[in-house]
Amino acid sequence: MHKILIVGEHDGKNLNPATAKCVHCAAGISGGEITIVVLGADTAAVAGQAAAIAGVKSVLRVDRPENQHPLAAIFAPQLVALATDFTHIFGPSTSFGKDLMPRVAALLGVPQVSDLMAVEGSHRFKRPTYAGNAIVTVEAEPARKLVATVRVASFEAAKGGGSATVESKSLSVALPSHTRYIGAKTGSTDRPDLQTAKRVVSGGRALGSAENFKLLFSFADKIGAAVGASRAAVDAGYAPNEMQVGQTGKIISPDIYIAIGISGAIQHLTGIKDARTIVAINKDGEAPIFEVADVGLVGDLFQIVPEFERLVGG
Amino acid sequence: MQKIMVCIKRVVDYNVRIRVKPDGTGVMLDGVKMSINPFDEIALEEALRIKERGTNIEVVAVSIGVTDTQQQLRTALAMGADRAILVQTDAAVEPLTAAQIFLALAKKENPDLIFLGKQAIDDDANQTGQMLAAIWDRPQATYASKVEIAAGKASVTREIDAGLETIEVDLPAVVTVDLRLNEPRYVKLPDIMKAKKKPLDVTSLDALGVSAGVLLKVIKTEPPPQRQKGVMVKDVAELVDVLKKKGLI
After folding, report:
1. What was the pLDDT predicted at A314?
2. Which residues does A285 contact at the CB level (< 8 Å), separation at least 6?
3. What's domain A2-168's superfamily in CATH?
């Protein structure tokens, strides 16, 4: 019997869709029983959302004022206390999970499987290395607890309609005071979330300026897409860091990815390999992006994008 | 602030096209160019900038690996580190073991700050800094894009999925760095000459009392599935047509 604890990611109001993807991943372990834990100042709303994910047996709420912000140093000791009852502890491979889970693993004295992309057995998994150019199958010792981050682009979200029990846990764990949350600057947007969007329009250095990125935003809004960017475009200041797609940015799996003025460095391709359809628009016909594109068009993006926008739905 | 430790890893250079061995036992490494992990280079650069802004701050570059890892440590010394330590081993070192080794070094060196890259571009694990902070029982600030040090504290701006977040941590602390923290300097020839005279100590796992066991067994290594070659279209009208037929727009 495998008892799997999934660390739910949320912003206090909404459960991040990455959580339901972790559930789908965990459901691949046969004979597993899935619990989601949400830590926060008041997790009533997000615990309700977690309980509605199909396949989840129970939801644990750990509410205390110190859990207002997801600080790894604060969350990790609480998860270690909870881990006693579980064989597997999973978190999403998002900036939240990547920060937190190794701290949990080290406190437990166990290794971590990062970016779990396929379940081959209760303790055997596939994960990418070398920017996705070498996939390794790893096996952990079943006698030890298993900590992993789940590569969310590899899994669909588990469906809704579940009715898990919800239980409040009070943990008597001493928390450190050496780490303090100061503030955040997040891009507020009405556009779909880049990590979960079905459609993504993404721009590269060829856009030439932050001003020109508006061309992409306009087009994206027309087709209901999220907007991403290559590292080159982010480094050049054309787009904020949260828009970066690639090995060190976001790994995404939309139905359609439209790469505009992106040459296709291997580190960028790592982030889009799971897209169902890749469309590339670039003035250089030799650009590596065309090697992975399902549909390619060579030409000037400044002419193509406005015309594209006019022809879809117009 | 007196001492900063920077952990660097020797990895396959980021420009090398990785090929998996046909027998599935790993990737081809023979004769391949090796470099400092790019994120660790950014970590070292940040340590050097803090050193240059302050007074009497020592920067110690440390690494774990084969004898040839001395090359990467010499590069770190040429960039400006004051001294280096190599924990020499031919064993494959997993992140938890690396964290235990760095902890042993931290206990000897007592640094105020430990910098690491947020991940190594070979195993892409993104674990060592967090694990080190955990077992050192100190704060962690991962994915740093800005680091400010004042009065025994570090204010660190972090790149997170939603944008940027700022946290404050008490020193000593572990900071892992992201791409946009700085642009590492180029090494000049006179610095390479000078680096040859800087101390580079070699120690061992045994001397540090750490054993490198296999925690995660690698069963096989394989190349990723390849995408099918696509079609080229001649204009936007044809592009829209293709996508409509696929039901994508």
Report:
1. 53
2. A298
3. HUPs (3.40.50.620)
Domain with CATH 3.40.50.620 in chain A: 2-168
Nearest to B236 among A104, A291, A308 (CB): A308
* Three-class DSSP category at A313: coil
* Phi and psi based region of residue A27 (left: phi greater than 0; alpha: psi -120 to 50; beta: remaining): alpha
Residue with tokens 């926008």: A309
Pick the residue of A248, A270, A276, A304 with the most B CBs within 10 A to test the interface with B by mutation.
A248
Q: How far is CA B181 from CA A155, B45, B49, B249, in A?
A: 32, 9, 11, 39
Average pLDDT over residues B16-33: 96
B-facing residues of A in 154-173 (CB < 8 A) are: none
Give B175-229 pLDDT, tens digit per residue. 999 999 999 999 999 999 999 999 999 999 999 999 988 999 999 999 998 888 8
Rounded CA gap, B240 and B231, in Å? 13
Query: For residue A77, what are its two tokens?
Result: 């000791």
Mutate to test the interface with B, among A19, A103, A116, A201 (most CBs of B within 10 A): A103
Task: Outline which parts of chain A fall under CATH 3.40.50.1220.
Answer: 199-311
- pLDDT digit string (tens) for A245-304? 998 899 999 999 999 999 999 999 999 999 999 999 999 999 999 999 999 999 999 999
The correct answer on CATH 3.40.50.1220 for the domain covering A199-311 is yes
Q: What is chain A's mean pLDDT, rounded?
A: 96
Closest partner CB to A248 (pick from B27, B169, B179): B179
Please name the member of A111, A130, A184 whose beta carbon is closest to the beta carbon of B216.
Answer: A111
CATH of B3-245, picked from 3.40.190.10, 2.40.30.170, 3.40.50.620, 3.40.50.150, is 3.40.50.620
Would the CB atoms of A296 and B231 count as touching at under 8 Å? Answer: yes
